[in-house]
């Protein structure tokens, strides 16, 4: 009911009209929308597990081990010049893997630039997941075939996209839920507000996963918001808010699974805040020691998602040494394959730069494509008439060779990566 729809009344004496606001009540009860006071956890709580949950926890552990190895390998490839940039999700693997496993096959994932691990855990080829960060293509995989939106490098722009897709699916009667991932820094963007507002008004089947890893590059959360938590922001939009320990992978999976089921049943969107920590720097171009200390990082190293789940599985006798070694071996095989394939230079066509931008190329794009073809033709003609280079010289490398990093510690890690 709006203010215009309120009917002014009279007080008991009939002398003065009753203010329209006298009968005001909240449009919705805020209590069910508020998050719990403490983050939801499962590990270390003695939670009872049936056969299905035991298998799920083992699957999560396999995903975390593979994810940690994937992060290490991608970081090494960046040092070796095989990736232009890599925003690592080391320490956040619990969120990444749980998000991918919480979705049904027909659902959609909307990742940010830090969520390549979630993309891989969803089933996308690791090389294709890294193609954008290599600088080779707009995206390396087919979003329609994989039901994974392209990695979003602009902050939070994927959130309204997720809402739009989810709303359209609902209008068509499709059984589809969209899960959109974003960091705490992205919640400071206008797109975050617009996405939650539209999702709530339309009751779109969408779940927002905020990985609160403590920093928006170098800006701590305390300098971004004064809210009790990011999850508390949900109530202002009429959205349910949930708070979970982001390094407790089974807990993240359960909370996200409940949110996905809720959205699928037509109960509307959910905002999930997962408390985690970005163990490594923002990217390879960042120096995290300039804005945080080792003392701050240490407690989170002890709260590692891989180690937490492994300890729980061993305590419950759900993981043996042989099984752990086999999973580690599988992860090494994956890393070796990724390393070998990323060390092969792709054959690229610069004219493909204009493909898949618009369904019908604009006049400006067509003009730019003509200019590019002219430049390529001129370069080819110049190469054909160029004098041959003298022999005996050292050819200039266009990519840094493995192990050629400036920092001795980086060289040691690269050596370990190549020896894997």
TrEMBL record:
Residues 396-420 have a biased composition (Basic and acidic residues). Gene3D superfamilies: 3.40.50.970. It holds the Pfam family E1_dh. The keyword Ligase does not apply. Residues 1-39, 380-420 are annotated as: Disordered. Its cofactor is thiamine diphosphate. Residues 71-349 form the Dehydrogenase E1 component domain. It comes from the Bacteria. CDD domains: TPP_E1_PDC_ADC_BCADC. InterPro entries: Alpha-ketoacid_DH_E1_comp, DH_E1, PdhA/BkdA, THDP-binding. Keywords: Oxidoreductase, Pyruvate, Thiamine pyrophosphate. This is Pyruvate dehydrogenase (Acetyl-transferring) E1 component subunit alpha.
